[in-house]
Specification:
Number of strands: 29
Structural class: mainly beta
Mean pLDDT: 92
Number of helices: 5
Largest sheet: 11 strands, antiparallel
Shape: globular
C-alpha cells in the first residue's frame, strides 16, 4: 500500500503570508492569496538556512552550501521549504525564480511586480519530503533570479530560504520516500533547460540501480518569450488574419525512455504578474503564479527495463514548443530493498506510435472575424512487469488526455476582441497486480476575454477578464477497497480596464477587481477553504472555513489508515 501512497506524493505549497500567519489582510495592497500553508506534524523542526537576505539585482546566480541538520536523524516525518521574497517599490518586470540543490529543483515560480507606491513581499512553501534522499547528504546549491536593475527598472528583489526538518515520532512516523532523487538537467548545481521547439529535449543518460521497483518523474514546463501566451496563439495559417501569434495553441510535456514514449504531462497556463494586464494581478495573483506545481508522471511500467544494468536515456520534450519553454525534471526511484536484481519488461505501450495531432476547425473570414477551435483527445495504456522479491508485479498506467481551445475573434476598425475558452484534462489510473491503485482527474479550465475598443477621437480602452482554475480529484485503493480520497480546487477571477489616449499613451485603469477561492476536502473529514477578494488594488474581503464543518478549517497533519502518512500535502496533497 505504501507504493500506492507514493504515487500521490506531489509537492503542494503556500504563497500567502496572511494565510500562513493568521493575519487579516483586508485593506492591504500587498500580495494576498487564498493558498494554504503546508501542514506540519507535531514537534519542533530542525532548521537549515539555505540563503538569507540575498539581493537579486543582476544576472548572476546566488550559490550556497548545504549541510544536513545535525542531531536530527536521517529520516524525517516531513521536510518543508520556506522562502520569502520582496521587491522594492518602483518599476520592474516579473522575474522567474528557482532554487536548486545538487542539480535538483527545490522551488520554481515567478515574482510579483511592484508599483511606484507598493513594495510587495510574499511567502512560499513546498513539501520536499519525497526528496529526503537528496537532503541526507551535503551538497552545493544556488538560487537563480535574474533581475535587471538600472535607471529605468529600479525594483531590487531580496530573498531568503530555509528547510525545516520535522523529526519522525510515534505520532508522525517517517513515510516511505524514494531511495534516489535524480535530476535530468546537466548542471551539477542546477538550472532550467530551455526547449525552443518540439524536438528539443531535456535529457539524461544514466545507469540506475538494478533493483528499481517504481519510478516517477516530476515535471515543470514554464512558458517563456514568444511562448509566454501560448494559449492565445492560433495555427500559422490564421495568424496574419487575426494579428496574433502563430504556432498553434496546443502544448504538452512528453516523457520518453530510450526514445520510446513513456508518459505525458499537461501544461498549465500560468499567467505571470505582468501578463496581459499587470493590474489584474494586484494584489491577488493568478493560480500558482508565485509557486508552480510539478506534474508527476508514473514510469513504473518501465521498472524492469530500468533495472537491467544498462544505460538508459530519460528525456522530456514539449509538443508545440515555439520559443520557448523553461523546463526542469526530477526522477524519483524506489528500490526493492530485499532484492539485488529486479528483472522485467514493458509488455504493452499504446502511447508508442501515437502523435498528439489536434483537429482544427474554423469559421474565420478574410477580415479576421470568426472562430478557431483546436481539439485533441487520446487514450493510452502502458503495462510492464517487474520480478521483485515479493513476486511478479504488473504495473499499468491507463490515461486519457483531453484538450480544447476555442477562440472567437471580432476584428474591425474600432474593435479587436478575442475570447478564449480552453480546457485541459487528464484522467488516469495507476494500478499494480499487488492490489494497489491510484486514480486522479485533473482539470485546467481557462477563460480569457480581451476587448479593445477605439473611440471616435482615437482614444482606446482594453477591458480584460480572466477566469483560471486548477482542479484535482484523487483516490487510492487496495483490491477495490477505497483507502483515501481528496479533492482540491483553486480558482481565480480577475478583471480590469486599461485606458489609452489617441497617441497610445497609457492614461490609467478602472474596474480592477479579483477573487480567489482555494478549497480542499478529503475522505477523513479534513477541510480547508479560504476566499479573498480585491478591488482597486486592495484586499476587500478575506475569509476562511466556509463550507467546512463548524466553519473552521481542519487541515492538519495526519496518518493514513494503514499507519503510513499520505505523502505530499494538504494534508495529503
Amino acid at each position: 500500500m505504501s507504493r500506492c501512497l507514493a504515487i500521490a506524493g506531489l509537492s503542494w505549497f503556500a504563497s500567502n503570508a496572511f494565510a500562513a500567519t493568521g493575519g487579516n489582510p483586508v485593506g492591504s495592497t500587498n500580495v494576498t492569496t487564498a493558498d494554504p500553508a503546508v501542514p506540519r506534524p507535531p514537534g519542533t523542526p530542525c532548521v537549515v538556512q539555505l540563503f538569507q537576505n540575498d539581493v537579486f539585482n543582476d544576472f548572476g546566480t546566488r550559490p550556497y552550501s548545504y549541510t544536513p541538520p545535525a542531531g536530527c536523524g536521517t529520516k524525517w516525518a516531513k521536510v518543508v521549504l520556506e522562502a520569502d521574497f520582496s521587491v522594492t517599490a518602483g518599476v520592474q518586470y516579473d522575474r522567474t525564480a528557482s532554487i536548486w540543490l545538487g542539480g535538483v529543483n527545490l522551488f520554481f515560480g515567478t515574482t510579483e511586480e511592484p508599483s511606484s507606491t507598493v513594495a510587495p513581499s510574499w511567502h512560499v512553501e513546498r513539501d520536499l519530503t519525497d526528496y529526503s534522499a537528496l537532503l541526507q547528504n551535503a551538497g552545493q546549491g544556488q538560487a537563480i533570479l535574474w533581475n535587471l536593475v538600472d535607471s529605468t527598472y529600479t525594483g531590487v528583489i531580496n530573498g531568503s530560504a530555509k528547510l525545516l526538518f520535522y523529526p519522525a515520532s510515534a505520532r508522525a512516523p517517517a513515510p516511505r520516500v524514494p531511495d534516489q532523487v535524480i535530476p535530468l538537467g546537466s548542471d551539477p548545481v542546477g538550472s532550467v533547460t530551455n526547449l525552443s521547439s518540439s524536438t528539443d529535449q531535456l535529457s539524461k543518460t544514466l545507469a540506475l540501480p538494478r533493483n528499481v521497483e517504481h519510478a516517477y518523474l516530476d515535471v515543470f514546463a514554464q512558458s517563456q518569450n514568444a511562448d509566454e501566451f501560448w494559449y492565445t496563439c492560433v495555427p500559422d495559417q490564421y495568424a496574419v488574419a487575426v494579428n496574433d501569434c502563430g504556432g498553434g495553441n496546443f502544448r504538452e510535456a512528453e516523457v520518453s525512455i530510450d526514445g520510446q514514449p513513456a508518459g505525458v504531462a499537461p501544461v498549465y497556463p500560468w499567467i505571470f504578474t505582468g501578463g496581459i494586464d499587470p493590474f489584474l494581478w494586484r494584489p491577488v495573483t493568478g493560480v500558482q503564479t508565485l509557486n508552480f506545481m510539478p506534474y508527476r508522471v508514473d514510469l513504473s511500467p518501465f521498472a524492469g527495463v530500468l533495472s537491467d544494468g544498462a544505460q538508459h536515456t530519460v528525456a522530456l520534450s514539449v509538443a508545440g514548443a515555439n520559443n520557448y519553454f523553461s523546463t526542469a525534471a526530477t526522477l524519483l526511484v524506489y528500490q526493492d530493498s530485499h532484492s539485488k536484481q529486479v528483472t522485467g519488461s514493458v509488455t504493452r505501450n499504446t502511447l508508442a506510435g501515437q502523435s498528439p495531432t489536434s483537429t482544427i476547425s474554423s469559421t474565420l473570414d478574410s477580415t479576421g472575424n470568426g472562430d478557431i477551435t483546436t481539439r485533441l483527445s487520446r487514450h493510452f495504456v502502458i503495462q510492464g512487469y517487474a520480478n521483485t522479491s515479493h513476486g511478479r508485479v504488473q504495473n499499468t498506467v491507463d490515461q486519457t488526455v483531453g484538450f480544447s481551445n476555442a477562440q472567437a475573434f471580432t476584428n474591425n476598425a474600432t474593435a479587436y476582441v478575442q475570447v478564449i475558452d480552453q480546457h485541459t484534462s487528464m484522467d488516469g489510473t495507476s494500478s499494480s497486480s499487488d492490489g494497489t491503485s491510484y486514480t486522479q482527474h485533473v482539470r485546467y479550465p481557462f477563460h480569457l476575454d480581451y476587448n479593445e475598443q477605439v473611440a471616435a477621437d482615437g482614444s482606446a480602452t482594453v477591458a480584460t477578464t480572466v477566469k483560471q482554475g486548477y482542479r484535482l480529484d484523487r483516490a487510492s485503493g487496495f483490491y477495490g477497497f477505497p483507502l483515501y480520497a481528496d479533492k482540491v480546487e483553486n480558482t481565480v477571477n480577475s478583471a480590469d480596464t486599461l485606458d489609452f489616449d489617441a497617441s497610445g499613451n497609457f492614461t490609467g485603469h478602472t474596474g480592477q477587481a479579483s477573487s480567489q477561492t482555494f478549497a480542499f476536502r478529503d475522505s477523513l473529514g479534513s477541510c480547508y477553504r479560504a476566499d479573498v477578494a480585491s478591488a482597486s488594488g486592495a484586499v476587500t474581503a478575506y475569509g476562511t472555513g466556509k463550507g467546512c464543518p463548524g466553519g473552521q478549517n481542519g487541515v492538519s497533519w495526519f496518518s493514513h489508515p494503514d499507519g503510513s502518512p499520505w505523502q505530499g500535502d494538504t494534508p495529503g496533497w
